[in-house]
Specification:
Elements: H1 2-6, H2 24-29, E1 33-35, H3 38-47, E2 53-55, E3 65-67, E4 73-75, H4 88-108
Parallel strand pairs: 1-2
Antiparallel strand pairs: 3-4
């Protein structure tokens, strides 16, 4: 619920969003699959070993670090922690990093 409440800060509407497990069907329908952790990357590659799976943090700028408070400091290529169940104050820095990486990903498609 916290992510849904914070989403408008990033001009995103998650009111109709419902999380779901990753399936082969989702993999087949997807043009690009972005994951937050290397473990997720390995798991998705079991379903769909293609070049369309990427670690989201690969789209962070080089030579910058991001302090995520209790989750630590991350840089390009690191795992992005899942803040599920945390307070808005702890979730927002993670969403900030996700937003930066998502914008850079979208720019890479142009």
């Amino acid at each position: 619920q916290v992510c849904r409440d914070l989403a408008p800060l990033y001009f995103v509407d998650l009111s109709q969003h419902c999380s779901q497990g990753f399936t082969e069907e989702i993999a087949q329908k997807s043009h690009h699959i972005l994951v937050m952790t290397y473990n997720h990357y390995k798991e998705v590659m079991r379903f769909h070993p293609s070049g369309k799976v990427s670690l989201l943090s690969e789209y962070l700028p080089l030579n910058l670090s991001y302090d995520l408070g209790i989750f630590g400091i991350i840089t390009k290529g690191n795992n992005i922690p899942d803040p599920m169940g945390q307070s808005p104050e702890l979730v927002k820095p993670v969403l900030d990093v996700i937003a930066i990486a998502a914008v850079n990903f979208s720019l890479s498609l142009q």
